[in-house]
Amino acid sequence: MYLFTILVGLPIVLAVGLWWIPFRFLQAFMFVFSFFVSLCSALLFLSPSTFSFSLGSFFSTAVIVIDTLLILYFLKEGLGLKDKRVWILALIQLGLFSLVESSIGSNYGRADFIIDELSTFMFTVINIVGSLIVVYAVWYIDKESISENRKRFFLCVLILFLSVMNLIVATNSLMLFFLLFELTTLASYLLIGFRKNEISIHNALKALWMNQIGGVFILIAVILGIFYKTAPYFDGLMENGSMLVVVSLIAMAGLVKGAQIPFDSWLLGAMVAPSPVSAILHSATMVKLAPFVILKLAPAYEHTIVGQSIMVFGSFVFVIAGLYGLSRDNFKEILGYSTISLLGLMIAMATIVGNEHKDILYIIIFFHAISKALLFLLAGILEKNHNVKNISDMDGLLHKAPLSTSMIMIGFATITLPPFGLFFGKLFSIELVASNMRSDPTYLFLLAALAVGSAILILLYFKVASLLFSKNAKDEAYCSEKPFTCEMISPYIFTLLLMCSAFLIVFGGIEIPLIYILGSLLLIFVIPFWLKIDPFKNVDRVKEYHCGEQGHFGVAQWSFSFTNGIEKTILLTGIVAFIAIALGGLL
Q1: What are the φ/ψ torsions at residue 228 (nearest 5 degrees)?
Q2: 290 touches 255 (CB < 8 A)
Q3: Residues 270-299: pLDDT tens digits?
C-alpha cells in the first residue's frame, strides 16, 4: 500500500515542486525520481500480493465534481475552437453522466481499487519506461524556442500523466475508470496541441473527440449495468456472465484508446507533438491500456463471440497497420504504424492467453515498450541534432551519426530477431496458437496473421536500415557524435535493458542452440561495424561519368501503398468490427 502511494503521490509532489527547481538541475531531479518510482514498481511486481481499498465519501464527491468540470472543459474547448464533434460528444457525456449519478447506488460493498499481479506488472511498464522518457524530455524541451514556464508546464503534464496511469491500471470502479480515462484524454489533448500551431490544434482536437467516444462507451456500459442490477465494478462484471454487452462496451473503449482502426488516426496525429509525447503515448503508457483492458476482461468473454471478434480484429490490424507503415517516409509515422500493428497483436493474444500463459503477453508488452521508447527518443535526437525527420534524409546516417544509428539498429533488432524478448514473445504466441487450433478454428486466422504480420514488420524495419547503411559519394567529411551527453542517458539505459533481455531469455531455461544466439548478435553488431569502416571504397561510392550531366541515384526501398478505395474499405472494416463486438455482446 505504501509503495502504491509513492507511485501515485511522488509524481504529484514533483509536478508541483518543479516550478521552483532551477531548470539546470531538473534532469538530475528527474533521474532520481525515475530511480525511486522504478524501484517501487519493481518491488511491487517481485513481491506479489493482492490488496484493495475504497475512497471515502469526501473523495467520492470530489470525483463527481472533477468529472463534471472535465466534461465542461471539453465542452468549452469544442465551442471555443468551433469543433462540433467535440462539443456534441461533451454534451452527450454530460447527459449520460448525469443519468448515471442520479441512478447509481452506493451500497455495492466493493473496493474502488484492487492491486493485483496485472496492476503491478503495468506499474513496471509505466514507471520504468515512462519516467526515463521524462528524464529525456528535460533535454528535449529545453531545445524548444518557448518560455521557461511553457517548458515547465510540458514537464508537469508528463509527470502527472504517470500518476493518472498508475491509478487507472489499479481501479476497480467503472466510474473511477471513466474519470481516469478522460484524464488521459485531457493529457493527450494538451500534449499533442502543445506547440499551438494549426496542425497541432487540429490533431489535438481529433485525439479529443475520438477518445471522447471511448468515454461514451464506458458511460453506456455503466447505465446498462445499472439497468440489469450489476455492480459498476470490474470484479462485478467477472461474476455476472450474462452482462456480456457491458463487457463488450468496455472492451471497445479500450480499443479506442489503443488507436485500433478506425481510430488509428488520432495516434498518428500525435507525431506533430514533441518527441517525448510520441514516446510516452506510443510505448509506455496510454496505448497499453488496450491490451490491459482486454486481458483484464478476458475471463468474462472467454469462449464467446465477443472474444473471437476481438481476436480476429486484432489479427487484422496487426497485418494492415504494418502495410500502412511501408507507405510512409516520416520516421515517427513508421514507428507509429508499427506500434498500432503490434498493439493489434497484443489485443489478439490477450483474448486467448488466459491465466496460464499471460507471461507471453507480459513479455510482448514490456519489451515492446522499451524498444519503441528507445526508437522514439532517438527520432527526437535525430530531429534536434541532425535535422532529420524522414527516412529519405537518412542516407549515410551510419557515418554521420554512428552512435544514434547503432542504437536504432539495436531497437529494430530487439523487435525482430532472437535472442531478444519480443522475438520470443511472438515465437511463444505462435506455439500457443498452433497448440489450440483444434479447439477453436478461428485461431487459424491469428496464426496466419502472426506469420504475415511479422514478415511485414521485418520488411518495414529493413526498409529504414537500407538507408542507414548507404553512403553518398560527395560526403567526405562526417560528423562525430559526443557519446556522453544529457540526451543519451535514457537511450543508454533502454539499450542496456534490451541487451539484458537477451541474457534473461537465454538463462531463463529456454532451450535454444547457442549458434542462433551468436549468429544474431553477430548480425546486429559486426555487420554495422563492417559497413562503417567501408571496405568497398571506390566501388559503391564512384558515380559514372555522364559528359557533364548531373547523375542522381539512391538506395532502393521496398514500399507499398493502398488506393483510396482500399483505404475506405479498411476504414469501413474497422467500423464493422466495432459493431460486431457490440452486437456480439447482445447475443
Answers
A1: -95, 15
A2: yes
A3: 888 888 898 888 765 678 889 999 999 988
Do the beta carbons of residue 257 and residue 287 sit within 8 Å? yes
CB 352 within 8 Å of CB 429: no
Say if residues 411 and 378 touch (Cβ distance below 8 Å): yes
Q: Which of 328, 332, 361, 323 is nearest to 267 (CA)?
A: 332
Higher pLDDT, 558 or 104: 104
At 373, the amino acid letter reads A
The pLDDT tens digits for 462-487 are 777 777 766 654 554 455 667 778 88
Cis before 291? omega within 30:
no
Among the listed residues 205, 177, 159, 56, the one whose alpha carbon sits nearest the alpha carbon of residue 114 = 177
The three cell numbers of residue 103 are 441512478
Cis, peptide link before residue 262, omega less than 30° from 0: yes
Contacts of 234 (CB under 8 A, 6+ apart): 114, 171, 172, 174, 177, 296, 297
> Cα–Cα distances in Å, from 446 out to 74, 307, 426, 541, 571?
39, 13, 12, 45, 20
Longest dimension (CA), the chain: 88
Region for 512 from its dihedrals, namely left if φ exceeds 0, alpha if ψ lies in -120 to 50, beta otherwise: beta
Report the b/e string of 226-253 with b at 16+ CB within 10 A.
beeebbbbbebbeebeebbbbbbbbbbb
Q: Which of 92, 313, 102 is nearest to 218 (CA)?
A: 92
340, amino acid identity: I
How far is residue 450's CA from residue 122's CA, in Å, rounded to a whole number?
Answer: 24
Cell of 247: 463487457
Query: What Cα–Cα distance (Å) separates residue 500 from each residue in 267, 370, 404?
Result: 30, 12, 19
Q: How many CB atoms lie within 10 A of CB 474?
A: 6
pLDDT digits (tens, 9 = 90+) for 331-387: 888 888 889 999 999 999 999 888 888 888 998 898 889 989 999 999 888 888 888
* Terminal-to-terminal C-alpha distance of the chain: 40
Q: How far apart are CA 1 and CA 172, in angstroms?
A: 16
**Strand partners for 51:** 115
Distance CA 26, CA 19 (A): 10
Q: What is the pLDDT of residue 538?
A: 44
The answer to whether 222 touches 178, Cβ cutoff 8 Å, is yes
Question: At residue 420, what are phi and psi to the nearest 5 degrees?
Answer: -100, 160
Contact in structure between 578 and 255 (CB atoms under 8 Å): yes
Residues 6+ apart with CB under 8 A from 238: 299, 300
Does 401 have pLDDT greater than 90? no
- Show Cβ contacts of residue 368 under 8 Å, excluding neighbours closer than 6 positions: 283, 339, 342, 346, 415, 422
Mean pLDDT, residues 91-106 taken together:
87
